Amino acid sequence: MKTSILSFGLFLCLFATSWAQQFEGIATYKTDRKVDLKMEGDMDDATQASIQAQLKKQFQREYTLTFKGAESLYEEVESLEKPSPKAAAGGIQIMVSGGADVLYRNLKNNRFRTQTEIMSKPFLIKDTLQKRDWVLGKETKNIGNYTCFKATFTEEVSEQFMSSENDSIVQEKKMRTTTAWYTLDIPLGHGPSEFWGLPGLILEINDGDLTILCSKIVLNPNKPVEIDLPTTGKEVTQKEYETIQQKKMDEMMERFKGDGRRGDGQQVQIRIGG
Predict the structure, then answer these.
(1) pLDDT per residue over 198-222, tens digit each?
(2) 167-180 burial: b if 16+ Cβ within 10 Å, else e
(3) pTM recorded for the entire structure
(4) What is d(CA 269, CA 222) in angstroms, rounded to the nearest whole number?
(5) Which end of the chain has fewer CB atoms within 10 angstroms, the N or the C?
């Protein structure tokens, strides 16, 4: 009797794995970020509003998640329009860098690759996936034609900014809760950006500032899905990359202390990201 139960259980596991491996397709996501910009000094309200509008628009991007069994590839959709940033009133120009990363994940091998750059220098991060401690909830909602379940996780994050009081770099730590909505209709542990590891495909992410929402899914298209591994850039681990990134950030902050705040009407570029 025990042998029969074990055999049936093994059959179910193999069936579920085989069923999940049959899913392949392309999901399209749109991103948005809440911008709450406050700048001290002689800048008027109209200029601040213009800067805030520029920032918000540049954070509105579109990405695709190509998935096939245990593999996935997340990358930005190239826009046909590449408008150069326009100077707001007061000559301040907003440029948001970053966002063009290519992220490959293999859930079976527990590995990932990220093709990214820091100040135009390409890097290829290759490392082991670090699973989050998702808390699965019972709450549901519909996203398009899919019934989605809620999941959350909370983590401590660090933020750096320049203090206007003494031109020093201030680092603040805070707790951030991220909410995900996933569907069991597509039983794959993939998701947009850095988010993955749930019982089904993640269709929405919200951490209070960043929102990522799936707008379209094409399942099992007529043309077979192909996933090309990113290969461009200097190979580093995640820890090595974070060390380089922090060093460049510190250098940028030091430069900003010297010439970043100008009141002479000249153009000042504000860069966010790599």
Answers:
(1) 999 999 999 988 999 999 999 999 8
(2) eeeeeeeeeeebbb
(3) 0.78
(4) 46
(5) N
